[in-house]
Amino acid sequence: xxxxxxxxxxxxxxxxxxxxxxxxxxxxxxxxxxxxxxxxxxxxxxxxxxxxxxxxxxxxxxxxxxxxxxxxxxxxxxxxxxxxxxxxxxxxxxxxxxxxxxxxxxxxxxxxxxxxxxxxxxxxxxxxxxxxxxxxxxxxxxxxxxxxxxxxxxxxxxxxxxxxxxxxxxxxxxxxxxxxxxxxxxxxxxxxxxxxxxxxxxxxxxxxxxxxxxxxxxxxxxxxxxxxxxxxxxxxxxxxxxxxxxxxxxxxxxxxxxxxxxxxxxxxxxxxxxxxxxxxxxxxxxxxxxxxxxxxxxxxxxxxxxxxxxxxxxxxxxxxxxxxxxxxxxxxxxxx
Length: 336
Fold this sequence. Notes:
336 residues, alpha/beta, Rossmann fold, 2 domains, four-stranded parallel β-sheet, 9 strands, 41% helix, 13% strand, globular
């Protein structure tokens, strides 16, 4: 039986952050959450996004103090991890998140499953459902696969990345990391996102989440990788790195997807680095102390220097930590 989230979190809330009001109780958060699936962040209102971030903040505090071990929030839930693409950070953080909350975790080894015999996605998920799995965390190379899964089964579906479409929990953990770093609110903040926007599901989900949370976005990268994105509300496309960074409160650089770069957009990685690669010197074009994010894995020496990735501006490690908290929040809200 799933333990109601409000029973466990109301006495261990994270301290309120400057400049914002947190939800009164986690029980309220659970009552106002109406979604059976998380397919992308575009389905969430601003209030729902903030509910998720506030819940993640509380759960992060509970995890850091060890309190979660004694109050499993989703005991009795069986979470299936169905990763049709390679992953380290996302898969491991979902597994840790589910176990921290008391769930049973089933890791579907796609290479060794009936998928290798030609079984369809829907049939595989129906099989998991019949064995008692209740929630599936799905990563798939086909855009829209989680939507098909949600229509075809009675499972709760949590999108862990689908094709070029979306990566909702990455956008949520990025938003939490930025909110913490920028004083508790993204209202009026200017965020620069640099790189291969066209091939980035992370970028697409971040456009939805960060704009809805009150930020304005400036995108920069080779023309073929940013074309058309200027039509998004709250988004501006810049023509140079200097223009992208100017006045930025925070900077996010994206992985150059080496498996896709050969298809065009840049003549060489060397040219990309010369024009768009980040160094400490170039980061001085942003606001003083502007933090740096990267969804990982990084290509050090391509989109940013190793010194910058490990330097005081970098929040890359914090993003990884927040990934577990956000995934705990989403799993608990979907199970409530």
